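Person: I keep going back and forth on a fold encoding question. Show me how you would write down a chain together with its backbone fold. Please set it down just below, with no commentary around it:
Helper:
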Amino acid sequence: MTRLRVLHLVDDTTAGGVMRVLDHILTAPALAEQADHSLRCVKRGSLLSARLDADVIVSHLAISWRALPMLVALRLMHPRTPLIHVEHSYTDHFTRHNVTRKGRFATLLRTAYALFNHVVAVSHAQGAWLVGTGAVKPAALSVIQSCVDLSAFRALAAPAGPVRVIGAIGRLDDQKGFDILVRAFRRTTNPDIALHIYGEGAQEGSLRALAEDDSRIRFKGFAPDPVAAMTAVDAVAMPSRWEAYGLVAIEALAAQRPLLVNGIDGLSDHIPNGAREVAVQDLRSWQEALENLTDANAPTDRPNAATSELPEHIFEAAWIALLNRARLG
């Protein structure tokens, strides 16, 4: 049997979760044994100028009305080629916070997803939402939780003693909910704890203003080395308003760092694996969660990095199974 040629399409190569997952797909030995994976960047909203030479085409593109003509052309130019779309962005809470005309948005998703043979949800919560809204037929859906190489995180020693440094890692924008975290942290009174915020983004100025003169809150800038950032913190907080999955969560759990999450969208996937849910996204709930996390008298409760099967192996096996399914039609 000839080796499968898998072409991944992306329209945004900005450093972030999507590119990190793609890098893992392109470099994972188990996936390389099964197929030749390659990456092609296309201009957002443009039309393809020629047919693509691949046995399977995987879209990591942003779905929008502007992108729809390109997706239609992709289907028409490759009538017999299996097409897979990975939905990295849209979730239940994304629509609640960002979509005004929900009926029109639902029509967009149904129309776009119907062009693909398979749609991949990056979390179980996202997959349930996609099927529940009718955007994707159950037979066309696969759930493959996003993953990167976690070996360096598993190699980190668990912090000794009580939690003293809490990390917030991600883009500084409304999605991540760091404004709630900063406000909640300022309401705590323990002078021996700190909040370290790693990232860049449009919300940095407003977050610094919220932090005011609280010397416990430090802005560390963009973290080019996620392992180094994780090494420097005792715990991680993720108060996101929406999140398809959350790579920082699996990194924190692999590094045995206590993890606080807003229990929505893909973040809820991490709760069975040791994340602590903050049930209500308000200042009081997050203040109490932070105080409980940093209580020196509370028993130390850290995630266990040892599991029966590594997330990387689950991710790779799921992609191999999907590509074989696509090959067989």
Summary: The radius of gyration is 21 Å. Residues 158 and 240 are 25 Å apart (CA to CA). The chain has a mean pLDDT of 94. The chain has two domains: 4-149+311-328, 151-293.
